[in-house]
Amino acid sequence: MSHIATILLLGSGELGREFVIAAKRLGARVIACDSYDNAPAMQMADGREVFSMLDGAALRAAVGKHRPDLIVPEIEAIRTEVLADLEAESFTIVPSARAAQLTMNRDAIRDLAAGGLGLVTSQYGYAESFTETRAVADRIGYPLVMKPVMSSSGKGQSKVENAEALEAAWDYAVANMRGDRARVICEQFIAFDYEITLLTVRHKNGISFCPPIGHRQERGDYRESWQPAAMSPAALAKAQDMAATVVMALQGGGRGWGLYGVEFFVKGEDVIFSELSPRPHDTGMVTLASQDLNEFDLHARAILGLPTPGSITSRPAASAVILADRDSDDFAFEGLADALALSPEVDVRIFGKPVTRPYRRMGVALARADTAVDAVSLAKQAADAVRIVYSPKAD
Fold first, then answer.
1. Catalytic position from the list 282, 295, 345, 347
2. Which residues lie below 8 Å from residue 369, measured CB to CB, with a gap of 6+?
3. Nearest CA to 179 among 146, 155, 144, 145?
4. Which of 47, 138, 221, 295 is deepest in the core (most CB within 10 A)?
């Protein structure tokens, strides 16, 4: 069987799972890679490879074995210098090796945005020890937000109200960081009105924007997202301009095609750059219900060089996460029928993760309604109706 392209997917979580579905619908062959077997995306892919993405030799071996047309990172913690070497050898890295390198850690992308591109950001500083952390905090002031420079899903992030809470925040950040260096970013806490994700698609004909996505976080990770988020035309224009600026700067030696999740804080008409992911975004799961072409469809079309809409619209919709509360490898889901019975406009996606952990996302409820506010309420009801039931040995 001939395929439009062979894709090597680096990281196989729930976002990768939906991407595999989108890519295979377009005729691609996908090899899903992750550090553990039976990861969500592997269950949908044509093949799988199990290795640490930080193992450069194993990464090279997988590329040599499959000779992919496209190498698609789904996570940040990857041996990015190997990606740069592969790009120099004419392999296509999505969206580019430069994007993977600069977004692997929060420090590089923040320095590019603030220093290299002159985008508006909060005050910030880095630290590699508690002593350095204290010095940065004294300069920035309280309250502040501390995050590992490399982590996922908000792990290790906390708001620090005063000097007495600083050491506990440092310990929490170090305990939850990914990669092989202990480094945190401390940033000024901004009393924003709301925060958004602006899904930005770079494709062969230019740049397209999805309507802004609002979201609410707890413990540094999103709990609900909704689209479209209410936003003034002036603020939206600023966000789009900043998103286009940083996305164009990430091309490097690659094509730069793909979908980017660009996060902003908004206070009045002021728009402040926060973070960027050069791949589909967790808050963008809402697009599975809100857009005719969801974020995974758009990512697949863009990286494959297929026609991508210049104008993208949405209907009011929301997502709400389904969380685990303990460690277990023996569990089941109940209440799915109850959730779906709430409304014909409700849908549920179970991610297929083989083990649970406290606060791990195991699924998402989706809902459409007349307004985004109503959609959030309905999505939360649906998420609450789905229960994770653990075997007695998990208690």
1. 282
2. 316, 317, 318, 345, 375, 377, 378
3. 155
4. 295
Q: Which of 47, 154, 220, 352 is catalytic?
A: 154
With beta carbons less than 8 A apart as the criterion, state whether 28 and 304 touch.
yes
What is the span of the domain harbouring residue 128?
Answer: 123-188
Q: Kindly compute the dihedral angle of the four CA atoms of residues 83, 85, 86, 87, in this order, to the nearest 10 degrees.
A: 90
pLDDT score recorded for residue 180: 63
For residue 240, the surrounding DSSP H or E stretch is: helix 233-249
- Name residues of the chain where pLDDT drops below 50: 394-395
Q: What is the DSSP string of 327-376?
A: -BSSEEEE-HHHHHTT-TTEEEEE---SSB-TT-EEEEEEEE-SSHHHHH
Is 218 in the active site? no
269 is known as an active-site residue: no
- Are residues 375 and 228 in contact, defined by beta-carbon separation less than 8 angstroms? no
Active site residue 48: no
Q: Do residue 302 and residue 336 come from a single domain?
A: no
Active site residue 74: no
The total number of structural domains that make up the chain: 4
d(CA 258, CA 235): 24
